[in-house]
Amino acid sequence: MKEKRTLMLPGPTPIPKQARLAGAEEIIGHREPECEDLLKEVVDGLKYVFQTTNDVLVLTCSGTGGLEASIANTLSAGDKVLSLCTGAFGERYATIAERYGVDVERINFEWGKAVDVNKVRERLEEDKNNEIKAILMTHNETSTGVVNDPQPIGELADEHDVLLLADAVSSLAGVELKVDEWGVDVAVTSSQKALMSPPGVCLVSVSSKALDAGQEADLPSFYWSFQRAKERYDRNFQTPSTPAIAILYSLRESLRQMKEEGLQEVFNRHQIVTKAIRKAAEAIGLELLVDDEIASTTVTAIQVPDEVEYSTLRQNMKEKYNVYITGSKGELKGKVFRIGHLGNVSRSDILSTISALEMVLKQEGFELKLGVGLEAAQKVFYEEESR
Amino acid sequence: MKEKRTLMLPGPTPIPKQARLAGAEEIIGHREPECEDLLKEVVDGLKYVFQTTNDVLVLTCSGTGGLEASIANTLSAGDKVLSLCTGAFGERYATIAERYGVDVERINFEWGKAVDVNKVRERLEEDKNNEIKAILMTHNETSTGVVNDPQPIGELADEHDVLLLADAVSSLAGVELKVDEWGVDVAVTSSQKALMSPPGVCLVSVSSKALDAGQEADLPSFYWSFQRAKERYDRNFQTPSTPAIAILYSLRESLRQMKEEGLQEVFNRHQIVTKAIRKAAEAIGLELLVDDEIASTTVTAIQVPDEVEYSTLRQNMKEKYNVYITGSKGELKGKVFRIGHLGNVSRSDILSTISALEMVLKQEGFELKLGVGLEAAQKVFYEEESR
């Protein structure tokens, strides 16, 4: 018997069975009232998760498409933006803006560290002529497992009257994001991360400030024009193009589950799982890339020990135990491995992953007492339950 | 008991049960070999349907996104293109190009008629300095139910060394399209039409001529860059961003079914169904918008008779018989109704539709002998089977 698949990637993530089955429902017409009801329930659920009263647009594309949409809808060629880069996805956001002819100024931070707010403040204070139109930030930098706090950046954005555009692809619903309270003008996420749905749909909360900026912006965009989407919502709660109806069926079901569980409980569950993985890694004798205070609750990066090759670790965990982990990108390639633990990840998934990790490490010559990681993780679960 | 839903829209279309269930499979990692196998089988199946050896790119977006990608990847701002407009979707293709700053020259044809190739030839012959870079055409104009023949346009494009970009969204797999033989440089279709899958994926065949043109083109595009997609195919048969895996599961199953049925048989089935609907409409005493020679085999537009309001017809067919038809756009709004008959549409769907149509027409005061349409359709089925 083959072990069941344990998908511990930072996306796509495992989908609850009811959400997968919901996606198999018969397709309906996208101009029918029943599709408007579907979209409305999805958007209401998303507003709850984004903690916003902004419009949340449903675009049919991956997260990258949503990031591109956030640029194309709010900026003009030649506009100056600050891009806060803490890893590969910060880098990607900057690259997309450059592709559109935006004048991108990167502030680079060491991979594995968070944005230093002081540097952002200094740069904005230097900008006497208000040339900077927007700040691009990565809420949860998936390549390193670092959370950047949007709250102080949102305050600075407000103070200096610039837009705050945030990549929340691997954070939303796994790391708290208070869109309204923190002043995030555009936040982009996608269906296949902590929202526990199949890939293919991108969700974008858009503030009125961002919509206003779009009136003056001249970058080309038709398919994912925020304005077209907004007009269609206001008219009859439809989307300009045919939406990915089957994915919306799944997303509706996942959002229902999250609402029933309660958003704070969802975050709490992510925190417990994260703590279990971090404690287990330490007990095994592995080194975490990221300090506790800035550690993501959706993905954890762990240094590959000298005794083991990354590719062997990954391959053996997959082939022997059907546990899927991944590596990192750029300067961290081959040096860290990452465990995704967002969305529909259970305690048993964590235990399977730690067990497989221990076994492969030991087989490859890394010295450890089998079970130390399991014990540490279980202890976290036990203590949390005893509270 | 409520009647079963009969979805007779020109998309989204009903999905075979096995394809719907396939979409409920567990999600896999998009950088895993099993996802490469999935993508490869889908692309091979698509090459069979597109009748091409070109790369067929799989983009996560709706058909409109694919049309936008075809512009953004092959043209530069200010480039001159000819847009052959025979209805609302030809108009939309032109609008997208304009949004990107392309210099669009429309050749408009009466709605309900096909492209007059002589007009295109004349215009290209006038273009002594080869200013025209591309021709945009709609293979199957969904708003009117007209098929425009790409073959003579492809010959002209070849002769004058311009690109031929074709909207094949509502045609591919329902109307024959010989991409290679007819010289179509970019052909765009989407998953929720004759490919019998959920909406959310766009399929684009791209010739080497189009890829070459892309090297010089300067319009911005990152998410759906053909070049990035092509590089990723060549490297390891993946997509640059996470693809819509669940939709690809469904699409793989639908393509398997089409391969088993045989492409010519698929077209043949569409022709029979079309003939049945057209004969039924005539027998009922209704007027078809489009002549036989240019009639689409995926959607049929029928004049709304004077005795009936379009909205009443549509609403009653839906509410009383659970049969979904639709209207048209622009100048045809309220004047014609359209029946989609592409993909997974069976003879029993056609009979249910004709029966509902007859009943509602009669209830609304249109004079007809009940059953005349059914009889005409059945006769088509009977004769085809007796061949």
Can you describe what's shown?
- The structure is a homodimer of 387-residue chains.
- With 387 residues, the first copy, chain A, is α/β, with parallel strands linked by helices.
- The first copy, chain A, has helices spanning 17-22, 33-50, 63-72, 88-99, 117-126, 150-159, 179-182, 208-216, 226-236, 245-261, 263-284, 310-321, 347-363, 372-386; strands at 6-7, 55-59, 80-85, 103-108, 132-138, 140-141, 146-147, 163-167, 186-190, 202-206, 299-303, 323-324, 336-340.
- In chain A, helix 11 (263-284) runs parallel beside helix 13 (347-363), helix 11 (263-284) runs antiparallel to helix 14 (372-386) and helix 12 (310-321) crosses helix 13.
- The longest helix of chain A has 22 residues, at 263-284.
- The radius of gyration of chain A is 21 Å and the shape is globular.
- At the A-B interface, helix 3, helix 4 and helix 10 of A face helix 3, helix 4 and helix 10 of B.
- Chains A, B: Belongs to the class-V pyridoxal-phosphate-dependent aminotransferase family.
- Chains A, B: Residues 31-325 form the Aminotransferase class V domain.
- Chains A, B: Its cofactor is pyridoxal 5'-phosphate.
- Chains A, B: This is Aspartate aminotransferase.
